[in-house]
Design a protein that fits this description.
Layout lengths: L18 H9 L2 E12 L4 E6 L3 E9 L2 E5 L4 E4 L4 E4 L3 E6 L7 E2 L5 E5 L2 E6 L8 E11 L5 H5 L4 E2 L10 H14 L4 H22 L8 H6 L1 H12 L7 H8 L3 H12 L3 H18 L5 H7 L5 H12 L3 H6 L7
Helix pairs in contact: 3-4, 6-7, 7-8, 9-11
Amino acid sequence: MLDRKSETGTQPSARQVPPDLVSELLMGMRLVGGNYRRIQLSAPFGVRFGTVEGRAQFHFVARGPVLLRRKDGGVHVMDTGDAVLLPRGGLHDLISDRDLPCRDVSTYEAALLCQSVSEIKDCNGCRSTDVIVFSGCMDFDLGGMHPLVALMPEVMFVGTLMERYPEILPMLEAMEREARDARAGFAGILARLADVVSAFIVRGWVECGCGDATGWVEALRDPRLGRVIAALHRDPGRNWTLADLAAEMGSSRSVFAERFLAVTGMTPVRYLTELRMRLASQWIGRDRMPIETAAHRLGYGSQAAFSRAFKRVIGSPPGVVRGGGASADV
C-alpha cells in the first residue's frame, strides 16, 4: 500500500511538551551530516541505504517522483520538494517502481564535489526526467535526552510542518534550485540547508508533543515531573537525594518515587545514572574530554566507581569509548 507522508509523528497533540522543556530538550541537540550525496538517476533504478546504528538519514527530492521503501516493505511516495528524516537510519531503499531489485549506494562510482559531499550520476545522458535526490548520513545526538530518539517515528516527513513553520518552504525551494542547477558552491550550501531542515523536523515533533510516544515522554508532559527532569538535566553532577527530587516535584518522597517509577519505568537513581553515563559517553567519545574530568563533572569522587557505572550502562569501559572513532556510514 502506498502511503504518502505517513508516520510523521508531527501532528499536533492535545498534550504538548511545555515550551521551556522544549528549549532544554533541543539545547544539546547535535545533528550534523558526515557524508552527503547528490544522486542523479534515470529510471528504472533501485538504490539501497544501510545507515549504521546511531546515525540518521536525510533525503531531499529535488526532482521526483521517487518511492521510499522501508525494510518492512512499506512504501511512501516522495515528489519534488519533499524531504524526509529517518532518525534511526536503518535499511531502506529509494526506487523508481515497486519491487525493483536494489544496488547498495556505496557501490556506485562517486565524484567528490567538496569535503564530505560527493556526486553519483547513473543516468542516460542526464535528461530532464532524471530523478535528483540530495542525501545525507548524519550524526544525531540529543545528549542527555537521547531516549527521545528511540521514541521517534521510523520516518519523519517535512510536509506536515509547513503550516507551523512556513519559513521552511523557502529553504526547500532553495535546496531544489541548488540541487538542480549545480552552481558554484552548491554542494556546501545544500549540506548546511539539509542540517537545518532536519533540525526543524525534530523540533516540530517535540513541540507537537512527541506524537503518540508514551512512557518516558509522559514525565515531560507532567508539569511537576517535568520540573524534576529539567533539574536533573541542568545539573546532573549534583549529589541529588530522593528528598531533593521530591521537593522539586512538591510532594513526599514516597509519592514522588512511586510516580517517577510509574511514568518513566525506572527509579530516580537509575534514571540519573543513565543520564550521567550518556553524557559521559558523549563527552569522552565525541568531545575527547579526559575521563577523570568527566567523572568529576558528574559527581564521582572515584574514577573507579565512575568506570564501573559507565561499563554497566554503556557496555564498555570509558577507555574503549575514548579510543574508538565514529563509525562510517554506508
